[in-house]
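Can't paste images in this forum, so I'm doing it all in text. The chain is below; anyone willing to post the predicted structure tokens underneath?
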Amino acid sequence: MHNFEKEPLARDELFAQLRLHSVAHLGQVYQAIIETNGEVSVFYYADEDVVYGLPIIPDETNKKQTLIHTEDYYSCHFCGNTENIKPSNVYACTGCQKNEWVKSTNKKRIK
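Text version of the structure:
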């Protein structure tokens, strides 16, 4: 997220660009590069290498929670860091120390 401070593209705009490339969550993306012309180049994980990641579909991304009721994979709403979290009243992200989480997914990319 610190890289967004020096880039002309906002987080929501990046997520929109990724969705245009058929990306549903960040665990499907190996690397995304903002090119000098403003376009986004996307390099994907192979289906068998997809990991849990932050959903970037608006309905899913907006389901933030601070209380974790069931052990599962969750992604930090702010930085996208994904962790397996046990039930907890408050759990701070190890990447940015924020505490809003979205249930992660590891669905394969629809091509």
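The first strand starts at residue 29 and ends at 34. The chain is about 15% helix and 20% strand.
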